[in-house]
Amino acid sequence: xxxxxxxxxxxxxxxxxxxxxxxxxxxxxxxxxxxxxxxxxxxxxxxxxxxxxxxxxxxxxxxxxxxxxxxxxxxxxxxxxxxxxxxxxxxxxxxxxxxxxxxxxxxxxxxxxxxxxxxxxxxxxxxxxxxxxxxxxxxxxxxxxxxxxxxxxxxxxxxxxxxxxxxxxxxxxxxxxxxxxxxxxxxxxxxxxxxxxxxxxxxxxxxxxxxxxxxxxxxxxxxxxxxxxxxxxxxxxxxxxxxxxxxxxxxxxxxxxxxxxxxxxxxxxxxxxxxxxxxxxxxxxxxxxxxxxxxxxxxxxxxxxxxxxxxxxxxx
Amino acid sequence: xxxxxxxxxxxxxxxxxxxxxxxxxxxxxxxxxxxxxxxxxxxxxxxxxxxxxxxxxxxxxxxxxxxxxxxxxxxxxxxxxxxxxxxxxxxxxxxxxxxxxxxxxxxxxxxxxxxxxxxxxxxxxxxxxxxxxxxxxxxxxxxxxxxxxxxxxxxxxxxxxxxxxxxxxxxxxxxxxxxxxxxxxxxxxxxxxxxxxxxxxxxxxxxxxxxxxxxxxxxxxxxxxxxxxxxxxxxxxxxxxxxxxxxxxxxxxxxxxxxxxxxxxxxxxxxxxxxxxxxxxxxxxxxxxxxxxxxxxxxxxxxxxxxxxxxxxxxxxxxxxxxxxxxxx
Lengths: 316, 329
What we know:
The complex is a heterodimer.
Chain A: H1 2-9, H2 13-29, H3 36-61, H4 69-86, H5 91-115, H6 120-139, H7 149-156, H8 164-182, H9 184-194, H10 196-201, H11 206-232, H12 243-253, H13 265-284, H14 289-315
Chain B: H1 2-21, E1 40-44, H2 51-67, E2 70-74, H3 81-93, E3 97-102, H4 110-118, E4 123-126, E5 140-144, H5 146-160, E6 166-171, H6 176-192, E7 197-198, E8 202-203, H7 208-221, E9 225-230, H8 235-246, E10 251-255, H9 259-266, E11 272-274, H10 278-293, E12 301-304, E13 308-309, H11 315-328
Parallel strand pairs in B: 1-2, 1-3, 3-4, 4-5, 5-12, 6-7, 6-8, 6-9, 9-10, 10-11
Antiparallel strand pairs in B: 11-13
Helix pairs in contact in B: 2-10, 5-6, 7-8
């Protein structure tokens, strides 16, 4: 009994339990729901948003938020494919240009939000438009196509029956979760989001911590955009459209506080999986397509609500 | 104070850069006109940077140029209906419009069209099948009949799957035209191939990774699916991606002859695309406006064909795309 209670105090349990519940419900409706192919498809689908969600987790734990991630992902995919196709840059250089664009966008977000003191919500909303605009300026709205064959082969390969994007997501999750919990920088991020004033007094350069988190988020957004570009075999300008909301939803469902200082990358990962299980499960269950959207919203609120209740009960 | 000064200076620098880089004021909301001649035709269209929309603008410009009219494209970069209407009203107020072609099936444009009609400016509505008499002030419409290509798609797909199995339908969004295509397709399939199960339509959206994930779920939920119709231009990519991920092979059909879609047909990843006559209807809108200006009577609906483009019919569309891409460059 004590062991079970202890188990329930693990933060991620509040997300894992609803996840198992949803999986069982959908499995009882359709026995094919958890077949290996079906699970692989769900994992493939979460990879791109998931990679960005890792950066967003760090950022939100540090008490900040980035709404531009989807647009930055799209811009970086277009930058990488555009430099490779139109200028004949070697693949590695094109990819580096894409990643650097992401890091730069993140850095600008950080400088504008932290150094200029413009609220993160506004600063990154501005970047959302700027990045989307530059994306269309570069490609004029047209998909950039084709991309180098080796890149497309990488994007379409299925290691472990899933995708390289998912393998990269898992690696990023493990590293980022470890760093957030165990490294000095991770603890600085936690302290900055928990109470910036106290962190400053303790000698932490909270501004530097936050700006670094912005740059990291931008670079991970670039990575996600580039990986999707590789899978689609096209530098598609629509890449990343609407991702910001999915990213924030996954992070919040995963137990990260909107006020900073609380959250784990592992929780975010489970939040991502919940979102996808619900989305796929509703399709598989044959729920009317309009009700699916309603259900996703309700389930999101319910999942966060259950977690909040569990935390309150734990405090009491 | 120091922060405020930095912010103001940064804004000034950005504004200066933008002003320096911009070619002309008109290229923002309303694009630079083609050469002046018999007068000005306006092309009103939200989401004006979208590739398909760009193709229609080029076709309309080409029509205007051949007929000796100036052409100005008016619209917002995003899907902002209110913003586009405001810009078009501004242009109408200038009083130099000889005619307007408005890319819409949305009743929100009706007051603008009525205003144009009142001041004697002919208005042609390309692409959308709008019933006669439902839009006061409109002179006519031009485009294919979505119900007709939906029926043709049902017959071709039915033939392709030998009248057996299940067919999925996906839509970019739920709007008048896509709903009509989905409904007519399902109706025809049930009539002509009663043994084929037609699944209810699902929304695939416009973001590729989400669209593919949705199509994968549909395939997994229905092992008997043998074909799919997408009513949107992203559909071929959606269903090609879903087939790759599930290892299934189905008869997939989508919309629009974009370069990516034609290559998917060429590679056999997609069976066919429906070639909505985007070029013809946009070019034709300029011709109809010219006729209206000259006092000729035009029919309410100038109907065009929407061919079913399979692997053996790709060449003319590839050539058309070469022409459009050259015009954009």
